[in-house]
User: Fold these one by one.
Assistant:
Number 1:
Amino acid sequence: MKSRRGKKADPKKKIMITASLILFLWIAGFYIYTTYTNIEIQEPEYEATKLLSTQNEQTVENAEENSKTIADMIEETTQSIVGISKLKNTGNSILSTSNEAELGLGTGVIVTENGYILSNEHVTGSKYSKCYITLENGRNYEGIVAWSDSDLDLSLTKIEAKDLKYATLGDSSQIKVGETVYAIGNPIGFEFRRTVTSGIISAKNRSIRINEEDSNAYMSDLIQTDATINPGNSGGPLITPTGEVIGINTVKITTAEGIGFAVPINVVKSIIESYKETQNYEQATIGIYAYDKQVIPYLDDNISFEKGIYVAQITANGPADKTELQEKDIILSIDGKELNTMNDLREYIYTKKPGDEVTLKINRRKINKEIVIKLGRK
């Protein structure tokens, strides 16, 4: 029987296969090498780093632009700052070398083009008082206090002038703790008029007790700031980096540094608008003395409530007298507007007129009820 043997391999064919395989491997290697090289050449990380560098450069440029804008805004706002004195100066300006104590020097801010100036009552005096105003351009005017509120320590003074540069009013309800603010005022005397100091909003809705003539007074819902406030700054504005007035500087803690207070601007906006449009304002009142939960601990540690306004006293023969409202009631809302601070109540009442009716939702011994009161004239 014959044995079967395989055919002998063709040497030429073997060489061609080997050559083809080498060529294929070379082409594949070249493709992989080229692709890898291209990936390295693109260097995506470098591009990302470059973009980040560009962003940083833009941020620096924007910061510089913003800084310039802030400076411009502050400079523009200072044009609406005035000096106020209760005593008439015989010189060219009340902002003289006489000190603050001699002239009763304080600060105000123009809030309408037709001559209304917002300040503190303790700077200008109460309603119908006379004071003296020096504008940024050095011109002097005699002013008459058109409106004032001792509880808020705010006043509006009218001078006979038109086309005045006035400040822009912001929204004090939108402020946040930690935001940058600037205080502008006339500390000490002439040499330091329109001084600008910077700081932050340290706290909101602060309540403080003030000792005056052997009696205690309370100011609530204040903006606390660490911007430097000195004698003469009273009545000046507390402004945002955009130049908007969010408060009026009123007091500072003399026993500590970096603790000053301003009255939020929102509480007086409706009054300013009324004088601007009609040259008049009729202030409505409920006829009560009330406190929010920030002040109550000063008065009575046994009183506690989470929301609302505590009615401490009802004014005899006032609008609330002889209604169902009682002392020790907690007013939760007015016409559906929730109340948590005294400024919440003031802001709403200041938008009303004597004779308007309001509905109070009150809590009395854990029972809620509604009471309608016709507002009177203050």
Number 2:
Amino acid sequence: MLIEHLNRQLLELDAAALRRRRRTVLSPCGPSQQLQPGGQLLAFCSNDYLGLASHPELVEALAEGARRWGAGSGASHLVSGHSLAHAELEQELARWLQPHIPAAQALLFCSGFMANLALMTALGDAQTTLLADKLNHASLIDGALLAKARLQRYPHGRLDQLERLLRDCQTPLKLIVTDAVFSMDGDLADLPELLRLAEAYDAWVVIDDAHGFGVLGAQGHGSLEHFGLCSERLIYMGTLGKAAGLSGAFVAAHPTVIEWLLQRARSYIYTTALPPALAHALRASLALIEGPPGQQRRARLQDNVAQLRAGLAALVERQPAWSLAQSPTAIQPLIVGGNDLAMRLSAALEAQGLWVPAIRPPTVPAGTARLRITLSAAHEPAQIQRLLDALAATLESQP
């Protein structure tokens, strides 16, 4: 009965062009990817925004960390898995955020999903209201649904409606919850205005900076540096598997918030710690991001964004049914509408040697299926032009 039930639902996904499929990659992360099946493809789908995932210094740092610390941590942080490598990484991450969150401390997690589950469930008690943007990442949504708090969602970016919710909120504690860079649209939350509202209504702001950490700000310190914010009301989550090129995540916040997470965050307490070799390598990644190599790569990434947006804008003029999201970041969605069309366009690009995924509901709202193009500092101008030429050729072939 169960198998029949699941098979019927899988067929329904197929009929709606919503079934997901994995691809097996045979090469290191980079613009050129060897797939099985599929052959060699030029990829515009990675979150490796600075092109650090295969950087020789990080490869060597990971090997050095393994030689010093071994392959695994062996236990959770609160048992015996918290090594000096983890402690030093947390101290360095706290230093990055202290100009923006006074006296901030940092706490490492195995993934951004686990960090957001921790924030929502440990902070979202019965005395709390979570006020969340409707386009927040799935991890924030799932965490909020698991929390004991009251959940209220406001339409994407509609801070006038958020203010009405804040004004009417009756719970003692209020947490405004938002992505900094929205993962499917690439646009930025208005963090200065969110902080102003938090100060006006005695609330706190939880920020998921998965797609801003390492990319935004003069030193790559993320969205708080980008906007020049400073407040103890900020609770910051950054991931280490995107611009940082490795894996893991962290929360930086007031020391009392961090201590509470350590005591009550189940996705921290009841899981094995990151391998200490990975923590060792992440310190090398932070040095690259903060130093001249990171500055150069961020500048190159912005040049790539400008080139792609100019080309996509010209395409959209020829196909008014399509639209280009208002994104200044490495995430550049080309919104085409229908699920079938998005899948056909993705397949047509792959036939031309390009890997650009089609994103469909429920990841994005119905009727907004898209090609989610993501750029890296490792992309060359000629590669971006190749994508634009292929999109133009595909547009010409549309009925």
Number 3:
Amino acid sequence: MEKSNAVIKDNYSPRLTNEDLAPLKEQTWTSYNFFAFWMSDVHSVGGYIMAGSLFALGLGSWQVLLSLLIGILIVQLFTNLVAKSSQVTGVPYPVICRATFGLLGANIPAILRGLIAVAWYGIQTYLASAAFLLILLKLAPSLTIYAEVKNYGFLGLSYLGWLAFMVMWVLQALVFTAGMETIRRFIDWAGPVVYVVMLMLAAWLVWKAGWRALDLNLAGVKYTGWASIPIMLNAIALVVSYFSGPMLNFGDFSRYGKSFSAVKKGNLWGLPINFLFFSLLTVVCIAATQPVFGKLITDPVEMVGHIDHSFAVILGGLTFMVATVGINVVANFVSPAFDFSNVAPRYISWRTGGMIAAVGSIFITPWNLFNNPQVIHYTLDVLGAIIGPLFGIVIADYFWLKKQRVVVDDLYILDKKSEYWFSNGYNWKAIGALVPAFILAALCVLLPSLEFLLNFTWFVGMSCGFVFYYLINSVHKQRADIVLSGRA
């Protein structure tokens, strides 16, 4: 059991406080810890599949590579913005949201982000289970019949698939319940390990294909020249949407940073620099599958599965299992743990909140949300429509309205004396900006006439959230100034 690293004062309200949500006594994470965090995030099976799915847009290798790099630079910029407030205050995302949405109103963004994490937790668990299933069938080929969904399946997943999914589910829960320090140590080595295996896989594929047979101008390329720019913009938007979850609640991790400088340095190495190498490996591996296997394969687990050598398949499968467990525990277990704990701190601990997310992930049948490029893109678009408005409002409030000033103690005092009490604990200006911003972003998904904005839901939602919140507060301030001048 880890020792408490929280500062809880006597005047803190039990309805707003527990040891997991309270400000930290010590902030110990270095740049390497954040670098390792992003390595785990990027190097999951989901990360490779997302990158590979961009080829389905009809882009060539260099176009996909450029789109990935521009997208990740945008992610780095916004991640640094959202990291600042939590690093300075030492509090997690749902608590810093109290300054924007109100002491009780913060439960709205917390629950929304928590539900999104439930979906992602299920998706990543399913992707990790695919690697486990690959190993299982390699060791016991006679079980292949039970991997057929048609004859031996339930809710779209085979019986063997269910077994693999639940095994991964339990393994991840064991890592999570060990505590945050154990999680930090886990991700410190999980991300780098994947690099070693991916380098070996890339070297083997290139060796088998031969340099001359390696064609980066893939046969599926439909767009060249100026015609490719709108498609690349869509690809860039999809990259941002993919990372929008951990980007929004990055404060859950930046709160542990020794300094904001350490956070930014870790993000620099972990995002553009790490992602450049990741993107190159992805493009080379996918391009090499055409001459080696006779077809284009964008799923790294499937790539490994086509290798004849059993040891290589088992090693590759285990590596992708570890990588995906790393990102899942970090991004989709830790965050909802804080989010759901924030709703009722007296009754829901950090560990209980995480288990709520884990149990919920089973019921959404996540294998139906990430099973082909079209569904992947649609899932990212829907999630972007929800996350974007929250991001825009939080950033507008902290940097524009509050000028980077937060009174930490007032985030835990459920009383009119608190600076963040607002109207009975709810900031209706923030909620009033959130609702129309979400509706406009959602319409991009629902209306065929707005199909050209489908992949830009995060940007639409973020921009609308920022602008609406700015306008509502500006009008409110003008009215207040008029009232004060009239009294004078």
